[in-house]
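Sequence only, no structure available. Ideas?
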Amino acid sequence: MVPDLRNYALMALALLVVVLGLSTWEYRRMFKATDFALALQNNAIKAQNTAAEQLLKKRTTERDALQMKLDERAAAQEKTDEKAVAQIGADDKQQRAAPVRVRVLNCTRDAGSSGGRAPGEATAAAGAGAEDSGAASGVLSKAGARRLADALTEIEMMSAAYSSCRANLLIE
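Reply:
I predicted one. Tokens follow.
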């Protein structure tokens, strides 16, 4: 008796169909699990993107508000600086238009014994302000007045710049 090959071939074919069916079912189950995990990840990413968008909007609004405050302070400081520069310019014109008067003090109190007098004579005046009782008045030359006005203008500009910077530092 010869074994019937047809029966064995049919059995092998049936076994192959069962194996293919089971593997297809397993692949389908794996696909569903992967698809579910991917959907969960996509939902988590969408939630994270939404939260990031909201945080970005909030921080942008805060930044814009702070920038607006800084711009307002800068504009106010510029106005203050412009007023100071205008005032300095007006003062400079006024000082340049008027003659500069100076007092020349009597230098005997500083001379001491080197002035040709005895040390006791230089300190003979006793009252307050008595040292400059012999002071004289005069008008500066045009060149001297111009140099003095330039120096005063420069001092006023530096003072205004210092005040402006100091105000900024104290606010911050």
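Helices lie at 5-97, 108-111, 119-122, 142-171.
Hope that gets you unstuck.
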